């Protein structure tokens, strides 16, 4: 998957605050993502997050 820092990802499972959009803060073996609704930051292993991504919204205008 081609995911970069500052992209917004939409996940299959939602956060406990009922939001499923996250801002990507760090990319590597682990992803650091921030919930766009409540601001909580979470570190997630790459293998787990790649299975859970429904859609990627790039910040440079590309989908």
Rg, nearest Å: 11 Å
Largest sheet: 5 strands, antiparallel
Q: Characterize the overall form.
A: globular
What is the strand tally? 5
Structural class: mainly beta
Helical segment tally?
1
* Multimeric status of the protein: single chain
Element pattern in H and E: EEEEHE
Mean pLDDT: 91
Low-pLDDT sequence parts: none
User: Helical residue percent?
Assistant: 10-25%
- Strand order, sheet with most strands: 4-3-2-1-5
Q: What's the N-to-C terminus distance?
A: 13 Å
Q: Which percent range describes the beta-strand content?
A: 35-45%
Q: Could you give a short description of this structure?
A:
The chain has one helix spanning 46-52, and strands at 8-11, 21-26, 30-35, 41-45, 53-57. It is built from 1 helix and 5 strands.
